[in-house]
Amino acid sequence: MSGRVALVTGGTGGIGTAICQRLAKEGYKVAAGYNSGGDHDKAKTWQSIQKEQGFDFDISYGDVRDYASCGECIKHVEETLGPIDILVNNAGITRDATLKRMSEGQWTDVLSANLDSVFNMTRQVVNGMIERKFGRIINVSSINAQKGQLGQTNYSAAKAGMHGFTKALSQEVARKGVTVNTVSPGYIATKMVMAVPEDVREQIVSGIPVGRLGEPEEVAHAVAFLAAESSGFITGSNLSVNGGQHMF
């Protein structure tokens, strides 16, 4: 059991919950970062449900779009659990529209929540990782960063930017015991995807070679693999978890 501290942004969502649970099973002390529109009771309810299932997670509020708020989130985790060894940048939003109809707000909201957030969180933990000569930074991107998607110029651009960030930072910290990697999920059976009409879901699945949607736990498995101490020779990589839907 590692006892290392992991912070997962967007930790109370579908994929975030699976990541938190998997890291806890691997022996990490886990904090779930949340925003939830400022609904603290919702996050506390999530925490209670997880405790009933045997998971003792810390929760820490932070608006990932805001540098100072991220700092407060990190400060709470480090005061409660200790220095952060693993950061999973998982928080994100969508505001879909074709570019000809996209508002400036739809663009800036998505770039801020999905890309600026990676800087806002990582910048405030990376120096500590360098000093301690160990760290794992894992950025959760998307298949649509790799192949593009109609109606998602904002989301695809932000998620592609995450991996650009990964590749650059991985070179800066490679000799410091810190790795930086990206995980790019395809279509995963979260509540949001399962709420899509069945005929639409069937059409999506028809384009996935393995013939099904992915499970949140499969994304969590990839994250845990990259977080492991034995994964120290893997950095700057982008691990696709998409059932073969996009290959390159």
Which helices and strands appear, and what pairs or packs with what?
Elements: E1 5-8, H1 14-25, E2 29-34, H2 40-52, E3 58-61, H3 67-80, E4 84-89, H4 104-122, H5 126-132, E5 135-140, H6 143-147, H7 153-173, E6 178-185, H8 191-194, H9 198-206, H10 216-227, E7 238-241
Parallel strand pairs: 1-2, 1-4, 2-3, 4-5, 5-6, 6-7
Helix pairs in contact: 1-10, 3-4, 4-7
What can you tell me about this protein's structure?
- The protein is built from 10 helices and 7 strands.
- It is α/β, with parallel strands linked by helices and 248 residues long.
- It has one domain (5-187, 216-241): Rossmann fold, CATH 3.40.50.720.
- Strands 3-2-1-4-5-6-7 form a 7-stranded parallel sheet, sandwiched between helices.
- The longest helix is centred in the middle third of the chain and has 21 residues, at 153-173.
- It is globular, with a radius of gyration of 17 Å.
Defining traits:
7 strands; Rossmann fold; alpha/beta; 248 residues
Number of strands: 7
Secondary-structure class: alpha/beta
Average pLDDT works out at 97
Largest sheet: 7 strands, parallel
Radius of gyration: 17 Å
For the record, the count of structural domains works out to 1
> What percentage of amino acids are in beta strands?
15-25%
* Spatial arrangement of strands, main beta sheet: 3-2-1-4-5-6-7
- In N-to-C order, the SSE pattern is EHEHEHEHHEHHEHHHE
Helix content: 40-55%
Under CATH, the topology can be stated as: Rossmann fold
- What is the general shape? globular
Q: What oligomeric assembly is this protein in?
A: single chain
